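Changelog note: in this version the structure field was regenerated for every chain. One regenerated record is shown below for reference.
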Amino acid sequence: MLNWLSPTTRSTYTLKNEEENVFVEKYRQLDEYHDEEEVKQNVNRGERRFAVLWEPVKDSNRSIPVFVKSERDKEQIKYAIENDDFLSKVIVGKRLQKVIDAMYVREIKQKEKIIKEGQQGKHLYIIASGKFEVSTEEKGIVNTLNVGKVFGELAILYNARRQATVKALTPSKVWVLDREIYQTIVSIYKIEERNERLKFLQECPVLNEVDERVLKKVAEFLQKEYFAAGKVIFREGDAADKFYIITAGTAAIMKENEGLKGYLSKGKCFGERAILSQGPRQATVISKDSGVECLTLSVQHFMNHFGNIRDITKVSIPALPEKPLEVQERSEKYKQLKPSDFKIIQTIGEGGFGIVEFIQNKKDPTMTFALKRLKRIEMVRDKLYRHIINERDIQMACESPFIVKLYKTHKDKRYLFFWLEMCLGGEVHKWLMNQRRGRFDEPSARFIAACLLEALNYLHERGIIYRDVKPENLLVDSKGYVKLADFSFVKKLSPHERTSTFVGTPEYVAPEILASMDYDRAVDLWAFGILIFELLNGNSPFSDKYNDTATIYRNIQRGFNKVRIPSYFSVEAISILTSLLCHNPEERLGYRIGGTYSIQNHPWFSKSNFNWEDLKLLKMVSPIHPKLSSNVDLRYMNIVRGKPSIPADDKTDYFKDF
């Protein structure tokens, strides 16, 4: 979300009455527009949700093994992958064939436990023969798996803890895929696919004069389309609305009164009038033989990114203006703070790597902080030292009323300490749980979302992506304003740079992360849409009643159009959610030309006359009203009882400059 467009070029988002009717009718026809009573709270909403982090393998020079197998075996593996809701979306194209080649067979004895609940996994399995039983400590036997079923699939994405035990009921065989091999395949073919798309564009006669940087950008949002044999791709006289490049198959060119004019094969482009002029199609193009696979670029998509320019040869990629991120000079009084000057009032937070304590100055009771204590030895064990340094540097430099301030850091042999702004209103997550209907009304949800949007905009303008949006990471200050906290997973990107780390809280993970694609700030826009839905509904759109991560990921891959929409969602709310929760990141509201303004101008905000200037100046009255009696009133905090374990000393020098 970049605020770099002048007011005269800001794109506005309008929703006409006819469009409103389309939205409502769409969900009614699909039987997905439901009464409030029908929408059940499916998850344990009191539980905090934790994020995952995994750095993928990036060794494109590593050889991919090929294990000999029969055609029947190959078909069995292919069928299993293509019929799995999750794998069919992430293992596609050339990746699929390489995955089939790289899988090897393993024999499993009767009663052998191939997966144990709680252990970290690194293999995906497909049953070749036999039968398996799935069980959990809490529920006992929950399922039986037969030939062709896939299990353990999360392990190819990151070192996920197994959520169930899988035991062979009979002597069995499974096909096995190692995580490192899969990620090597992904690494190799991401580069290959990117280069192949660019080559297709560069070899197209009408594009060979276009700046390579423009073509690289265009290559990112080309869409794959398949046309069965005999399918008319477009007809002579039709409006030119899409450009095509053939990646497989053959198409015939037909002219009215002239008949067959020729054929188009792999690498050939056609329909270029769509991006060069507004004239009608000059011929009919029909798919031949076994069908045609194309990369396509729609005019609307092109204009969303480059503005109202119909001639691609006139497009240029300007350097994105990026605001500097400079370390803020905190007041001298913060630099001189010493732990011995403070007393611990209460432990108010606990996570996998440490705790958060509420501390108060012994001599000046008005001075309080949230002191985050992280265990150094565990940071080193999980190789998170770079992330911690990154968190410190970025959060210390942020100066926004919508971001929790970091005033000071220090360390000892056991811990890293973060001195943070105290937000006595607690977490938005807790406020959400305590709402009478288990959800916020639209004005309240709109205010919270607007505060988050301001925080994300501040970060995105400085090339920073957040990557862990959720109610648990939004804190409420004493005046009811919402601030973004916990910078554990932030990352600074250069202009046009992307990253590939698997990171995020499962219900909020964007589909491009699941597909092991490179990504950028668009993942925060996806998560922004998830948050709006959860604020309005009480649950996120892709949650699972059993909190099964694999099911959550399958739900995400199925898409937002499969989500049940409650009847109390306004038309404007459905519209903004549909615009944010697009599978294609390039199409998300806020990512296209217009940036943040396209979100601010969306009817969900504009129809309520939401005053963005008052929000930025903190003049707006918050719909959240913390009732605090003093600056040590902890009624909204999650109080942690008991004493935390004391870690061993960290003897490494990873944090020598902390």
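Spot check on this record: The chain is about 30% helix and 20% strand. The chain has four domains: 14-43+427-616, 71-184, 212-314, 338-424+628-658.
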